[in-house]
Amino acid sequence: MDIALIRQEYMRERLDEGDVARDPIAQFRRWFDEAVQGSLPMVNAMTLATVNANGQPSARIVLLKGIDERGLVFYTDYESRKGRELSANSRASLLFYWIELEREVRVEGAVEKTSAAESDEYFASRPVGSRLAANASSPQSAILAGREALEQRYREVQQRYGEAPPRPSGWGGYRVVPQAMEFWQGRPNRLHDRLLYTKAAGGWNIVRLAP
Questions:
Q1: From the candidates 12, 22, 155, 190, which is the catalytic residue?
Q2: Nearest to 84 by CA among 109, 64, 58, 61
Q3: Catalytic site residue 190?
Q4: What's the CA gap between 45 and 102, in Å, rounded?
Q5: How far apart are alpha carbons 42 and 51 in whole angstroms?
Q6: Which tops the pLDDT comparison, 17 or 7?
Q7: Model pTM score
């Protein structure tokens, strides 16, 4: 198959300045709710892009676990590669892509840790297996001798904590505080709709970008 010939035509919706919310978080909630109502798979999956101290970018999929007027929240090991990169450069970008709706949302902003109370509350809501795994895999991204070494660590943690594993001290949440959010709606002939919100004094500016 010639990869260059793989194409997708976009025909579903349009995105007009007069129809969107004046606040990007409110607009994001509209689109997120529509994605949930459409039963899209892994609707909260998002690409997180970070940059290390040398300027090398990296990206991976994480899961959105909270959203409010302050920003978008995900949880991870603070000693993971992404955690170390956010320590060196506390700015990041998120990308949501809902192909079934022909929509994309990009988020750029500063990143801050959630409070310990927020991290505790979310950690307690996780299945016990996930809580055990967070302890067994810390520090995340560390080199392992093999799969058996990981499973042995899991068994040891399970034996130590049983059904009540604690939140590791190096595990918790990050909040991406948006400074810019772009909403992309696929349109025919690649004349896509792109609306960019940028933070301004007292609110948000909205502009249309060329596709």
A1: 190
A2: 58
A3: yes
A4: 15
A5: 25
A6: 17
A7: 0.94
